[in-house]
Amino acid sequence: MEYITLNNEVKMPIVGTGTNTYGKVNKDYNGELKNEIPELESALELGYRSIDAAISYRNEALVGGILAESSVPREELFITTKVPAREEYVSSKESTRAAIDNSLKNFKTDYLDLLLIHAPIEDKEQLKNTWEVFEEYYEAGKLKAIGVSNFKKNHLDELNEFAKVKPAVNQIQINLTEKNKELLDVLKEEGITPVAWGPMKTEEHQDKVLDEIGKAYGKSGAQVLLKYQIGRGVVVIPKSHNRENQAANLDLFDFELTAADVEKIDNL
Ligand SMILES: NC(=O)c1ccc[n+]([C@@H]2O[C@H](COP(=O)([O-])OP(=O)(O)OC[C@H]3O[C@@H](n4cnc5c(N)ncnc54)[C@H](OP(=O)(O)O)[C@@H]3O)[C@@H](O)[C@H]2O)c1
User: Fold this and answer.
1) CATH number for 128
2) In terms of residue numbers, what domain contains 18?
3) In terms of C-beta density within 10 A (0-12 exposed, 13-18 middle, 19 or more buried), how is residue 217 classed?
């Protein structure tokens, strides 16, 4: 596994697993919760250590239970979760503290590696209060890094007006249908690490080119796409319910794309 160093020197695995449909009937985001997640157990067995969770996914306690019971030591895991930008969680500092305390309980841990605001909070006072609570837990060592998700440049500018601790990460959609080029440039300038959600999304004509590039290395188009993303400093958190795909998504470190490959993908 390779790691990326965040702006506060914390190291984050460059590949993790998403969990938004894990443990749900029909692998449906809105599906009822089951009481098992074989996919997460399989991911841990295969070597995934970075787990992307969220309060909104409703499965935090289930995911946390599996992590806590696994044989992987806590210090090897990189646990991310997210506080929803909803009144229930951000209307007061007390509600944000309660949300974080509950996540710590769900993961049966005394610290989270990364906590994100799941989406922009439009009310400035609420944004400030929420970030101040994040900073409070960060200073107390209960959060090793703090960041945001789905923030555009204007949201980052607003946060920067009062943030004492800069966001370490912005988790946004980055794939070949949503390249987010301008925002990626902003994040680079500001020293904020981009984490790609939905990193696998492509269109059919793009798949053909990715598959073709992969042939030279004995890799699939999906692996080429992930390699392209991590090659430009983007953390990826692909999610799969299929063990073979899970294994493939980790098997990215024994080949290099050429500059010509990268240019081809850039132009897709
Ligand atoms: N911050 C946010 O607002 C936000 C929004 C969306 C998602 N997320 C996070 O990002 C994670 C990933 O995003 P996502 O789940 O939407 O999409 P994704 O990881 O880009 O794509 C998942 C799809 O790709 C397929 N897939 C995975 N690996 C593959 C491979 N090697 N070959 C072929 N197909 C493959 C999976 O099918 P199989 O199961 O059949 O492999 C699944 O249908 C989520 O789980 C969640 O943790 C965050």
Assistant:
1) 3.20.20.100
2) 3-202+229-252
3) middle
Q: How confident is the model at residue 15 (pLDDT cuts 50, 70, 90)?
A: very high
Mean pLDDT for the stretch of residues 83-87: 97
Q: pLDDT class for 213, splitting at 50, 70, 90?
A: very high
CA distance 241 to 28: 11
Among 17, 19, 20, 46, name the best residue to mutate to test ligand 1's pocket (greatest count of ligand atoms within 8 A of Cβ).
20
What is the total count of domains within the chain?
1
Residue 179 has pLDDT above 90, yes or no: no
Residue 240 lies in a domain: yes
In the set 57, 89, 137, 138, the catalytic residue is 57
CA of 198 to the centre of ligand 1 (A): 5
The rounded distance, in Å, linking the Cα atoms of 160 and 98 is 25
Q: What is the mean pLDDT of the chain?
A: 97
Overall average pLDDT of the 251-258 stretch: 97
Domain contains 207: no
- pLDDT at position 30 is 97
Concerning whether 57 is annotated as a catalytic residue, the answer is yes
Conformation bin of residue 47: beta by default, left when phi > 0, alpha when psi is -120 to 50: left
Domain membership of residue 44 (yes or no) is yes
* DSSP for residue 27: G
The tokens describing 59, both together, are: 């499965």
Is 115 a member of any domain?
yes
